[in-house]
Amino acid sequence: MIVKVKMNISSSEYFDFITEHLLDELPKSMKKKIQPSDIKKGLKYRQTYKLKSGDFVSKKEIVEFEYGKVYRLQMEVPDGFQYIGHTINPISDEQIEVTYEETVDSSKSTTSLFHKLKSNSNKKQMKQRLKAIEEHIISKRESEEEAEEE
């Protein structure tokens, strides 16, 4: 699945959001404090998911990270691997195009087919998520600007 969305934010604002999210999530998985400099290619961690069949521990690895340009993650899923990528193309100082890519490499052909069939509804949901991220970042920026004015 590939989704492209234009956003009225900067590439640094988008990557600050990704970094803040990882800084919030990683300590829960790694049981240690993480610094922004720790978020880079090669960082590996585990995350536990509750599934109907029981707990599943997913091994995750950041396979590419270049601040302001690209973030790619590889993660184990119950029957293979899932790859997630965010690529940023700057349009101007305050506008970017985000290309979100998600692929599943499954050992089960039925799972692979299921993901392909769900692709259209997943695209719509991902566009909504990306727009929600944009709105969150703009709201945060406006709040910070108002605080500076006071």
Automatic annotation (TrEMBL):
InterPro entries: DUF3284 (IPR021701). This is DUF3284 domain-containing protein. It comes from Breznakia pachnodae. The lineage of its organism: Bacteria, Bacillati, Bacillota, Erysipelotrichia, Erysipelotrichales.
